[in-house]
From TrEMBL:
Transmembrane helix recorded as keyword: yes
Lineage: Bacteria, Pseudomonadati, Pseudomonadota, Alphaproteobacteria, Maricaulales
One Gene Ontology CC term in the entry: plasma membrane
Organism: Litorimonas taeanensis
Biased composition (Low complexity): 303-312
Pfam short name (any one): MreC
Residue intervals passing through the bilayer: 15-34
Classification via InterPro entries: Cell/Rod_1, Cell/Rod_MreC_2, MreC, MreC_beta-barrel_core
Protein name (record): Cell shape-determining protein MreC
GO biological process, one term: regulation of cell shape
Family according to the record: Belongs to the MreC family.
Database matches in Gene3D superfamilies: Rod shape-determining protein MreC, domain 1, Rod shape-determining protein MreC, domain 2
Keywords: Cell shape, Coiled coil, Membrane, Transmembrane, Transmembrane helix
Length: 327
């Protein structure tokens, strides 16, 4: 009896505890369910907010990015402008150097032509290169000035040439410059010869581009295309300097196309040629001395006189002996 009452009392005491335990389990389950629902809700809200905020951020940042691109483009343009200035300066410098190089190449080509040109003359010529300018203040219509004179051995009458042929001759030589009379000047007279026929004449300038031939032989043979060179008959220019070719033969008027006039005259060279000098004049005193020396060299000496007198005496003795024998 007592034991059964104790058991009933125990069951009555455990009832509230069991109830509390069940309630706690239910609350825990409810919390778990609530937290998982909140997580899903939070994730859903985050996704929706991202979908809404992302276009707004893109829209807001678009001007910022555009401004950044604008500033970047301006910086690149500034840098490109500065580089362009540097490149332009270098290009201008290269153009100037190219121009100087082109001028140097042209000068070298002219020098090569001058050094390699063949002159058909048996007279060795020393060449002095010089640069020409037009003589605008001189007394002649067609004359040149060159930047070479007596300091380089240039003298009156020497030939001035290019690689194409004769230009003229020196009419005045200064210390470091000279005046050149061109072949086409009115005052120019040069003896010439036809290489083909051997006909000779005087090439006379008349201030035209094509000088004419004068004082030609009556039976001279001139034909278009004949090569004309210096004859050297004046003794001042060597024979064989090329002048040009016969351009036309009309009514006994022969015109010559000068080869050196076919190109602009810039660089020329002067043929250092010394003509045959005239014999020196002999004074009366020198002539008397020469005659006295000639008489002394041909007069007999004392020994020759003695020998001659002995030979004469011997001849006389021989003659007397012959006469005595005959008698």
């Amino acid at each position: 009896m007592p034991r059964s009452s104790y058991s009933a009392r125990s069951r009555d005491d455990n009832g509230p505890v069991f109830l509390v335990l069940v309630i706690a389990i239910l609350i825990s389950a409810a919390l778990i369910v609530t937290q998982s629902g909140e997580a899903r809700l939070r994730k859903s809200v985050q996704v929706q907010s991202d979908s809404i905020v992302s276009p707004l951020i893109t829209l807001i940042t678009r001007p910022i990015r555009a401004s950044e691109g604008l500033f970047g483009s301006m910086s690149d343009r500034r840098r490109a402008y500065e580089e362009n200035l540097v490149l332009r300066a270098e290009l201008q410098q290269l153009r100037e150097e190219n121009s100087r190089l082109r001028v140097s190449q042209e000068e070298i080509a002219r020098y090569e032509d001058m050094l390699s040109v063949t002159i058909e003359t048996n007279v060795p010529l020393k060449r002095v290169a010089a640069r020409t300018v037009n003589d605008l203040t001189g007394p002649f219509v067609r004359a040149l000035l060159i930047d070479a004179g007596k300091d380089k051995g240039i003298k009156l009458g020497q030939a001035v040439m290019t690689s194409d042929g004769l230009v003229g001759h020196v009419i005045l030589a200064g210390s470091n410059s000279s005046r050149i009379l061109r072949l086409d000047d009115l005052n120019s007279r040069i003896p010439v010869i036809n290489e083909r026929a051997g006909s000779v004449a005087i090439l006379a300038g008349d201030n035209s581009r094509k000088p004419k031939l004068i004082f030609s032989e009556i039976d001279a043979d001139w034909q278009e295309g004949d090569i004309i060179v210096t004859s050297g008959d004046d003794g001042r220019l060597p024979r064989g300097l090329h002048i040009g070719t016969i351009d036309s033969v009309v009514n006994d008027e022969v015109r010559v196309s000068v080869s050196s006039f076919q190109k602009p005259l810039d660089w020329v060279w002067v043929a250092i040629f010394d003509p045959i000098a005239e014999p020196e004049a002999i004074s009366e005193t020198s002539l008397s001395e020469n005659i006295s020396e000639a008489e002394l060299s041909t007069a007999p000496t004392h020994s020759d006189t003695t020998n001659n007198s002995d030979a004469t005496n011997n001849d006389d003795d021989a003659t007397l002996a012959i006469e005595g024998g005959t008698e």
